[in-house]
Amino acid sequence: MGFFAQDIGIDLGTANILVHVRGEGIVAREPSVVAIDQNTESILAVGDSAKEMIGRTPGNIVAIRPLKEGVIADFGVTRIMLRYFLRKVNARGVVTKPRVVICVPSGVTAVERRAVRDAAYQAGAREVYLIEEPMAAAIGAGLPVEMATGSMVLDVGGGTSEVAVISLGGIVTSKSLRIAGDEFDNAILNYCRREFNVLIGERTAEQIKLEIGSAYPKPNDDVIEIKGRNMVDGLPMGIKVSGYEIFGALREPLRTIIEALKVTLEKTPPELAADIMERGIMLTGGGALLSGFDKLIEKETGMPAILADNPLDCVALGTGKVLDEIDNLKGLLVSSNKFRE
pTM surpassing 0.90? Predict the structure, then answer.
């Protein structure tokens, strides 16, 4: 049935979806956004074109993110989104019913795992395997996860932050937080509302984070001018925000992530902790690109922090490596379920 099918790895992220095709690499990278016409209940756009509509749609059109904090919040829309990406791969000459490996946060429940599997089957998958995000991120970053040595990874995505210590092909200890890149955006949005009485949108908050956001004080204070809506009179207005102000706004969510890192280190066996002290903490995910994040971790933990070569792609690349050796690496998967006729 799947003779002409292809093996596909999916990083099902809160902010972005990355699709990895075995033998070809990452073939799709788009936002996890779907635009829906509420009057006709029809799908207008998925991915990049849908994200452009966020905050700019008329009343009958909504641009939504069907994944919240790393898990499925809207099952039907998630299924449609997965079907869109599978069809996009099929349009490149791959016949239907692929074998799929999907990443899930390490803290998800059995019900949430089943929701991901069911959505993939209904989107057209032949076999579905799930792998925990920190494991996939560690594999994608090139850490020796199957060796008897301790490896530590911190994956900061859009909806979740995952910290895990890995040895001998298994997660020794881990912690999953529903605080990540989206929470950074919310902290900036709330700061502008509280300090300037200005309401800004998600896209503007993200722009501020990317341009002047920092987890560690910078020697030079950058300033950016942004536009929003005055909450007093409702009129548009512009304000100037400094990098030092945004550093202060991001302090609370960053502190929560650092605390989770410390708690995980406290639970790590001494021998593995010694390995991590020598090898360092691997940083993956889009949130790890926040300026000065590695310096903050080194200061707070006393351990070296290393930014992965392709932090945004590590999870998707990890699924690809698992697909290449799926028969040998099935022990790394948290669950599998074959297609039932």
Answer: no
